[in-house]
Amino acid sequence: MIKVGFLVSYDFKYLYKSIPLVYDSSDLIVLAIDKNRQTWSGNSLFIDPAFFEWIKEFDTSNKIVIYEDTFYIPENTPAENDTRERNLLAKAMGDGGWHIQIDSDEYFNHFHKFVSFLKENKQFLKNPKSNPVEIHVQWITLFKKVEGGFLYVKGSLDAIEIATNYPKYKYMRATRHSKKIITKFILLHQSWARDEDEIYTKITNWSHRDDSDNIAFFELWKSINLNNYTEFVNLHENDPGKWKSLGFISENEMDNLELEISNFQLLKLRYKKYLIHFMREKLPSSIQEKIKILYKKVIL
């Protein structure tokens, strides 16, 4: 069974695009919405009633379920509230099958191919507790809307955990299961490609609110445009080397995005993910730093 969960919040409007992309190939879709209409930071959020009317009209196969609960806990950080909501969503989706969690602003243009891949690996569904697995896809970030298209993060080493047979989340979407399968499938992330007002709402409410100086990065983001984007390198707000440069993609190309992911890039991603997991579980911080330096010299 293919189960898809979405977190619905202030950026609900992107679901008009993201839900149809997965609808035909899924068996169940669960939309998690805070019943008090609060963000993970406790701020108020608005969801247009027209969205719910659209869901009723669109859901011709009766596979979409609205799950409302309290997802803001004042004592928690936004990241802790994020993780908590994902675990509650997993419970609402029920035991068994493949659990896939997609955010509102993420677009899985070739979802049917990903589902075929999951079904080919049905052996993981036999005893998931004893054989948990985490499936990663390539995460392509749209950085800014510009005339004629978008600036996007080019050649990044971003991969995101999106599916699991055993949905016990430890940090946001990460289950941190020891077995990870990193694939070439592409998930397009609207991310920073929003209006300025939306960006400000995002950075003051999202899980990473306390991770870095989001306002300073916001000012940098505002300064980048179609004429100067090639001048900016190492852009990521928390890990600069992760976003090495920006590229341009037209709006027409975005809907049929097929970026070639090299085998070497896939190798680097797999090595990085396994290394991070190993260091998190096994090694003291002093040794971790030495390995990080070696990794950058050898792999990057």
Task: Please provide a written account of the structure.
The chain is of the alpha/beta class and 300 residues long. 34% of the residues lie in helices and 24% in strands. The chain has helices spanning 15-23, 49-58, 78-93, 111-120, 196-203, 214-223, 251-254, 263-282, 285-298, and strands spanning 2-8, 28-34, 64-69, 98-103, 106-107, 133-146, 149-154, 159-164, 179-189, 245-250. Strands 1, 2, 3, 4, 5, 6, 7, 8, 9 and 10 form a ten-stranded mixed beta sheet that branches. Helix 1 (15-23) links the parallel strand 1 (2-8) and strand 2 (28-34). The longest helix is centred in the last third of the chain and has 20 residues, at 263-282. Mean pLDDT is 84; it is low at 274-280 and 294-300. It comes from Flavobacterium polysaccharolyticum. This is Glycosyl transferase family 2.
Q: What would you say the CATH architecture of the largest domain is?
A: Alpha-Beta Complex
CATH topology of the largest domain: Spore Coat Polysaccharide Biosynthesis Protein SpsA, Chain A
Total number of distinct structural domains: 2
Largest sheet: 10 strands, mixed
Instruction: Look at the structure and give the CATH class of the largest domain.
Output: Alpha Beta
Oligomer: single chain
DSSP helix count? 9
Blueprint (SSEs and pairs):
Layout: E1 2-8, H1 15-23, E2 28-34, H2 49-58, E3 64-69, H3 78-93, E4 98-103, E5 106-107, H4 111-120, E6 133-146, E7 149-154, E8 159-164, E9 179-189, H5 196-203, H6 214-223, E10 245-250, H7 251-254, H8 263-282, H9 285-298
Parallel strand pairs: 1-2, 1-4, 2-3, 6-9
Antiparallel strand pairs: 4-8, 5-9, 6-7, 6-8, 7-10
Organism: Flavobacterium polysaccharolyticum
Protein name: Glycosyl transferase family 2
